[in-house]
């Protein structure tokens, strides 16, 4: 449609206009159509959007969201620029989140455009065949299977097998001895925490039981193991914003309770095999790759600039800025490599002493399908419709394993809402 509009405008000439063959109103309509369907050809940027606090609060869409996405789509609702939604939610399927966004925004959002906090777990194939305890709300058993885990047990299923383990909830206490199924129970080998569960107290008790018993809570350990089972946690957000004006506890708060309970029990620190979701580098690496897949579908040859829009300085902004440093380091190393090859080819005698050459230090999991694009830079944009709009000290906290560098929580740009964020990026890229 846009292509047709361009051909039609191009075919008109001054003679047609002067002779009255084409009315002024038709010209205006064609011009508007040309602007609305401006081609993305020649552009090389895309967007990573947070959802809660940026596009919606609870179940309610924020007023500026629809207008923002009208700038990114054509009249039929198809995206003109690559867009991926990156959320720290972890208790639902990508498809469910895509359907929710499609309904809220009135456009078609595909499953491939959504990155959940648990999405990078697909890359952790070394854990997929382990007997894994999973915790969270929603269809986490099916989510785990969809991600590749084949041998799983939920905390609720563990409690059903061994109800005597849960002494916190009096309604679960059994008057008569319970038939204990020791014989067929295989030791748990890993723990995956998808998101904040219900009944935190019971979940804390059973997870700690599994960790201190080396995966066999059916029998007392002779001694607490010096190292515990692998623990992978998704979503470190301490707080998030719903419809109410005060921040709500997120999964990061549950993790804080778990870490405290384990340390009080053992005297040792709980250690994670991986922390996923923003601001984790695993998530940004994965989202960059997913955005590149969308860019290729739109006909892009390259994706150089990312614009990351979020409401939380300590997750969205911090994570985007850390990833920007990582991307710039990659670019610097690539330039050094090219310089080394050029000097070697021209007989330059190697690299001068003041140029330090390093190999790429990609310590990220590299199980992504296809060839990764790797953008050159990442601009963080903070909106004031979520956590940042609240004046309490809640917005100045983060998970204990992410030491906040004051420079890294400073956004590249701050705006009132997501519409302002989109306009800023489009104007910077000369797309408007």
Could you describe the 3D structure shown?
This protein is α/β, with parallel strands linked by helices. Helix content is about 35%, strand content about 10%. The chain has a six-stranded parallel sheet with strand order 5-4-1-13-14-15, with helices on both faces. A five-stranded parallel sheet has the order 7-6-8-9-12. Helix 5 links the parallel strand 4 and strand 5. The radius of gyration is 26 Å and the shape is globular. The two termini are about 20 Å apart. The model is unreliable at about 1-35, about 350-370 and about 390-395 (pLDDT under 50).
Q: Topology, please?
A:
Layout: H1 2-11, H2 14-19, H3 24-36, E1 45-49, E2 56-57, E3 60-61, H4 65-70, E4 83-86, H5 94-105, E5 114-115, E6 132-135, H6 140-147, E7 152-154, H7 155-161, E8 190-193, H8 200-212, E9 231-234, E10 239-240, E11 248-249, H9 251-266, E12 274-276, H10 281-297, E13 305-310, H11 313-345, E14 377-383, E15 413-415, H12 418-428
* Structural shape: globular
Distance between the ends: 19 Å
Strands in their spatial order, largest beta sheet: 5-4-1-13-14-15
Mean pLDDT: 82
Q: What structural class is derived from the secondary structure elements?
A: alpha/beta
Proportion of residues in helical segments: 25-40%
Low-confidence stretches: 1-37, 349-370, 390-394
Strands, count: 15
Evaluate the radius of gyration. 26 Å
Beta strand % = 5-15%
One letter per element, helices H and strands E, the order comes to HHHEEEHEHEEHEHEHEEEHEHEHEEH
